[in-house]
Each structure stands twice: as C-alpha cells, then as structure tokens.
Write a structure and sequence with these properties.
It is built from 14 helices and 24 strands. The chain has about 550 residues and is α/β, with parallel strands linked by helices. Strands 12-11-10-5-2-1-15-14 form an eight-stranded parallel sheet. Strands 16-17-18-23-20-21 form a six-stranded antiparallel sheet. A two-stranded antiparallel sheet has the order 3-4. Its cofactor is Ca(2+). InterPro entries: GH (IPR017853), GH13_cat_dom (IPR006047), Glyco_hydro_b (IPR013780).
Length: about 550
C-alpha cells in the first residue's frame, strides 16, 4: 500500500512538472514590447559632426565685431595642445547623411540629432564669460548646439543644403535603415537678459517669422505678463542661467510648442528626446504627450531629467504623467565607477537595474548611457570603453552612444574643455583602426540581430568583481529566444561554467558563431577573453520549471509609487 502511494505521488509530481513545463512554453516573457527598443541610438551634436556643405556655414553672421561674430570662436585659456570652441563649426545635414551608412554598419538603428529650430545669428554678449573648463557660462557662446530656439517653426539655416531639408534628411536616413530621434526643448528659448545692449533674436520668440514674445532684455522679475502681451509666454522668475523661462501653465505656450513639433514630426520623426524635462510640471507633459500621440499613436519619447536619484526621475515614466521614458542617470553614475579609471566591480550596477522592484513604469525602456554633451565624457582606457559597450549592448535598456565614443574621442573632457569638439570626416574614415570601434561594432551588431538582447527579461546570475553573467529571455508572439551573457572586464581570460537554469540544446555564440551542445542537466563551460564578451543564444521556448519560476517573478515585478 505504501509503495502504491509512493508511486502515485511520483507520477503526480511528474505530471505537475510536465504541466508546468507546458505552461511555460506558451507563457509570455519579455521586458518590453516597445518597438523602439530594437534600435540602439547614435547621438550626434550636428554642428560638431561633419561639415558636408561649407556653403551653409554662414561665416559672416554676427559681423566683424569679435563680441558677436558667430563662426569659429575658440575658448580662451586652453592649455597647449588643447582646444574648445563655442562658435559654429559647420556640421550639417549633408555631413550627417553622408555618414548614415557608417552609423548603420556600426550597429545602430536610430540617430538622435540636436534641435533643428532657428537659433540667434550672433554670439551672446550677456551672462558670464566662457572660460576654459567652466560651466554655466554663456557670454561669447552661440546657438551652434540648437538649444536656443528663436523660431520653433523654422529650420536653422546652418543645417540644410539645396535639395536636403529636414524631410529629405529623415527620408535619407530611413533609406539607410536609420530612425530619426529629434531633440526638442519646451522649457526655454534663447538667452534673454543681461546684454549690454539688446541683441536681435535673443529673448525673442517667433512663429514662422511673426514675433509672438519678447523678453526685451529685462530680468525675469521685471517682466509684466499680465499687462505686456510680449511677456505672456514667460515666467517672471529665472530658471537656467539667462535662458527665457517658458510658462508651462499658459495654454498659448502649449499650442505653440505642439504646433511646432507636430510640423517636424510630420517630416519623418520616429521618436522625441525632451530636453530639461524636469524643469516643467508633470501635468504639462501629460497634456503634451497626449496631444502628440493623438496625431502619432505610440510615439516614443524620452526625457532628460538630470538627477542621480531614481525616485525623482521615475514619475515622468508613469502613464498618469505622460508615459515618457528617461535617460538612465542613476545607472550612468555607477557605469562611470565600474568602467572608468576607478575600476569598481560589476556589483555596483546591481541595485540601479531595478529588475524586481523599482520606481519606473518599465526599466527596460530606459535610455542607458555613460556620458553625453552635458557632462564630462567617460574617462576610461580603451578597455574601459570596450567593457562599457559590452554591458550597454547586452543589459536591460536602450543604449545611447555619444558621437566619437566609438574611438574614445575627447575622453574625460567636459563642456568648454573639448567635450563638444568637432569630429570630422577624417576621424570617421580612420575609426576602423580603433579597437574600441571594432569591439563596439561586434557587440552592437549582435544586439541588432538578437531580440532577447533588445526586449528580453534580464535574470542575473552573477554581478561581482570583473565578472557578469545573466540571461535575457524573450518569448512572445511565436518568437522564443534565450540569451546567456558572459562578460569579463578583467585583464586576463576567465573561465565561466554555467549550470543554473541552463536548458539543454544547441547554443550558438552570437559574436563568433561557436556552437555548444548542452545535454540534459549539463553545463556550459567556456573561456571569455580579457575585456571580452560571449553571448550564447538558444532559439527555443522556456522548458525548465525553475527558470520559468524566476521569469514569472520578474514578470510580476512591482512598481513602487
């Protein structure tokens, strides 16, 4: 009798296990279904990329006065052999489009370019003088970066060429397989006060050539929005340096911005990057995103909320606040520790991933990066950049790489110390000589070909010291893929032996084509080179009950509000 009961229990247990396996094979496992997550992003500060058309340089703008001329304005005080520039340097749509094939071949699916709207035609004469290595200084600077909008309805004349306006650029990028991410600003216009004499364009706002607002070179406290119609678009208190502070509570401002950006979106924009998002109220972004998506359903947007506290930037991602993703500053802070000169261990990244509990609507839709134009570039060795790219292109999130990082350009340099220096065609043509470039191309192209790395759940096995081991699992709508990621940022080769949650089958290494046959209850053993990565892929459904249980927990991750 006892033996019969034992046999029945054994059979029942086996049937339950088989039932669990069958259920797992039909269950959905994914980090995100956002289509844009398929595309790594290459970020270009357009004026500093490539001058494809010297005919649009506008070298005479600002006149002969050294205080206002706009082209080629070196920052004073540079050490010998160093340089920085706050004038226009000629980068344009033609230079960008000429290198679309280069960007696509490198493994990217989207290009983020800086704002395209009309900016002032002179250098700013107010504010604090720009100095070598300084910050929040604007005297002597021009709008080469695009963030000082004067007429949000007109294209800045430094960018197009005959036959190549913005619509033609986005169409050309699309022919190369690249989406367009447009950088937009809603918080501010141009510098607007402290000028010795009022300058044309500065502090003014136009709608397709018609003046709608003017700061009149008055300090914010001197504005009178209630009685002066030219002041009604502005807050009467300062925000960022001398920039005009647009009134996010004024419906006219909302209409102005939605109208302007709808115009550019209609010319081929696939996603929006929103500058200084945390400087405006959450209800504004809810209303703005609703109006944009009413015209373009599903438009992906991500904002710049420059804060290393996840709790402070996460509210932008919540549906009730507009459902706008953000750049992952908290993870960026730790990446600088792990891949920069200090060489911290992978464990420093763990608590910034928020895979099980966290404040974000969805951590898999965050834009992951290690530097950009508003902070010092990553200060790392070639190997540090290679390791950082191995992490960015395999871990959760949508990777963003700042132009020139594929060769370690201006590493460690801040704004006004070389961060935004001109890159140029010569450096692009020589990029393949860089080991950073070669390894980035390998891992970026692997991500582009591997859905599990783009949208799969991340299940960590080991994040410690120089070693990282984790799964990415994607199972949805008939597509089934498990990726096993092995990263070694050490100076010597490292042995990896993985048994936990490992399914039997034929695992294909995505970077070099190696094939490993894993038997039932077997393990995968391999050597990862110094500063190397291996990504083994199994195109099969989840069949292990213990793996399914872990994935079920990740799918039920709670969002803390």
């Amino acid at each position: 009798m006892k033996a019969a009961r034992l046999q029945a229990w054994t059979i029942g247990t086996a049937l339950l296990a088989l039932s669990a396996v069958a259920a797992a094979q039909t269950r959905d496992y994914y980090g995100t279904l956002e289509p844009f997550a398929s595309d790594a992003v290459y970020f270009v500060l357009t004026d500093r990329y490539v001058n494809g058309d010297p005919g649009n340089d506008q070298r005479d703008q600002g006149g002969p006065d050294p205080a206002t001329r706009s082209f080629d304005r070196p920052v004073p005080g540079a050490p010998v052999g160093e340089s920085d520039n706050v004038g226009y340097l000629g980068g344009d749509f033609k230079g960008l489009l000429a290198n679309a094939g280069y960007i696509r071949d490198l493994g990217f699916g989207a290009v983020w370019l800086t704002p395209i709207v009309d900016n002032p035609d002179q250098a700013f004469t107010g504010g604090e003088a720009v100095t070598w290595g300084g910050a929040f200084q604007d005297r002597g600077k021009t709008g080469y970066h695009g963030y000082w909008g004067v007429d949000f309805y007109r294209l800045d004349e430094h960018l197009p060429s005959p036959g190549l306006d913005f619509a033609a650029l986005t169409a050309g990028l699309r022919r190369h397989g690249l989406k367009t991410v447009l950088d937009i600003v809603a918080n501010h216009g141009s510098p607007s006060f402290t000028m010795p004499r009022d300058q044309s364009g500065f502090g003014e706002l136009y709608r397709d050539g018609v003046l709608v607002a003017d700061h009149q070179n008055l300090a914010p406290a001197q504005l009178d929005p209630a009685r002066n119609r030219l002041h009604r678009y502005f807050h009467a208190e300062p925000d960022l340096v001398q920039l005009s502070n647009l009134d996010d509570g004024n419906p006219e401002v909302m209409d102005y911005l939605v109208g302007a950006y709808s115009q550019w979106i209609a010319q081929g924009v696939d996603a929006l990057r929103i500058d200084t998002i945390r400087h405006m109220q959450l209800p504004f972004w809810k209303a703005f995103s609703d109006r944009i998506r009413a015209q373009r359903p599903g438009m992906f947007m991500f904002g710049e909320a420059f804060d290393y506290d996840a709790g402070k930037i996460a509210p932008f991602t919540w549906a009730e606040n507009g459902g706008v993703s953000v750049l992952d500053f908290p993870l960026k802070q730790r990446m600088a520790e792990v891949f920069g000169r200090s060489g911290a261990g992978y464990q420093r990244l763990r608590d910034r991933l928020y895979l099980r509990r966290g404040p974000y609507a969805n951590p898999y839709e965050l834009m992951t990066f290690y530097d950009n134009h508003d902070m010092p570039r990553l200060d790392a060795s070639d190997e540090g950049f290679i390791d950082a790219h191995h992490w960015l292109f395999t871990a959760r999130g949508i990777p963003v790489i700042y132009y020139g990082s594929e060769t370690g350009f201006m590493r460690g340099r801040a704004e006004h110390a070389g961060n935004r220096n001109y890159y140029g065609q010569t450096r692009i043509d020589a990029a393949a000589d860089s080991p950073i470039y070669r390894q980035l191309r390998r891992i970026a192209r692997a991500r582009a070909a591997t859905p599990a790395l783009q949208r799969g759940l991340q299940l960590d096995l080991e994040l410690r010291g120089n070693r990282a081991t984790f799964y990415r699992v994607y199972q949805h709508d008939g597509q089934q893929q498990i990726a096993l990621v092995l990263l070694n940022k050490g100076d010597a080769p490292a042995e990896f032996a993985v048994r936990r949650y490992l399914q039997p089958g034929q695992w294909r290494e995505a970077l070099d084509g190696e094939v490993v046959e894993v038997p039932e209850r077997g393990r995968l053993t391999t050597t990862v080179p110094a500063h190397g990565a291996k990504v083994f892929v199994l195109d099969a459904p989840v069949t292990r009950a213990d793996l399914a249980r872990q994935l079920d927990r990740l799918m039920r991750r709670a969002v803390v509000r």
